[in-house]
Amino acid sequence: MVLPKSFLALVNEIEKLPGIGSKTAFRLALHLLLSSDSNISNLAKAITDAKNNIRICHICGNLAESDDLCEICKDPRRNQSVICVVETIQDLVAIERTDHYKGLYHVLGGLISPVENIDENDINLDLLIKRTKEKNIKEIIYAVPRSLEADATFIMMKQRLRDSNIDVKLTRFATGLPVGGHIDYVDSITLIQSFDNRVSVE
């Protein structure tokens, strides 16, 4: 079957999105092609506006609107003494959807992985140490499911805190999260139980 080059180019670009296979990319491209001009214009504007206006929060690594400070970090009602450390923004959103946790966050943006040549300097670890020391944080909740990379990152985080003479309570999510799993795929009840039953780490 021969298709127009511009259509195939659209399919190819959509297929680059995470979690999108060739069949889904084809269906989405066809849907876009057959959509009204106004729908396409609205979608293009939304993408452009988001790209132009969204920033990464300079405190926690979450998404922020223009002023470089996210809504969570700006909210004085949040518990300012607790930081929940997550790997990705998707994980942060998944936890927020439970409407259970009311503290602050820190997005690492990745995990230490010697295999992929990712070390502590490639993730958002320095700022976490600085925040913990300057803001008198009482507890850090490490909300990253168990894996070799997650454990290596946790060990490095703990070592950096110790080297900086920071006395803070360290806790990890309790059982319930699958080893090597992703928080954004876990149901809300399991996440809530993981928070409530988190365990201290010496």
Task: Describe the protein.
This protein has 202 residues and is α/β, with parallel strands linked by helices. The chain contains eight helices and seven strands. The chain has a five-stranded mixed beta sheet with strand order 4-3-5-6-7. The protein has a two-stranded antiparallel sheet with strand order 1-2. The model has no long low-confidence stretch (mean pLDDT 90).
Overall outline? elongated
**Helix coverage percent:** 40-55%
Mean residue pLDDT: 90
The ordered H/E elements are HHHEEHEHEHEHEHE
Structural class by SSE content? alpha/beta
Determine the N-to-C terminus distance: 62 Å
- Percent strand equals 5-15%
Rg (C-alpha, Å): 20 Å
* Uncertain runs: none
Q: How many discrete domains?
A: 2
Strand order of the largest sheet: 4-3-5-6-7
CATH architectural grouping of the largest domain:
3-Layer(aba) Sandwich
Short note summarizing the structure:
The protein has helices spanning about 5-15, 20-35, 35-55, 70-75, 90-95, 125-135, 150-165, 190-195; strands spanning about 55, 65, 80-85, 105, 140, 170, 200. It is of the alpha/beta class and about 200 residues long.
Identify the notable features of this structure and list them briefly.
Dna Topoisomerase Vi A Subunit, Chain: A, domain 2; 7 strands; elongated; single chain; two-stranded antiparallel sheet; 202 residues; Helicase, Ruva Protein, domain 3; 5-stranded mixed β-sheet; alpha/beta; 8 helices
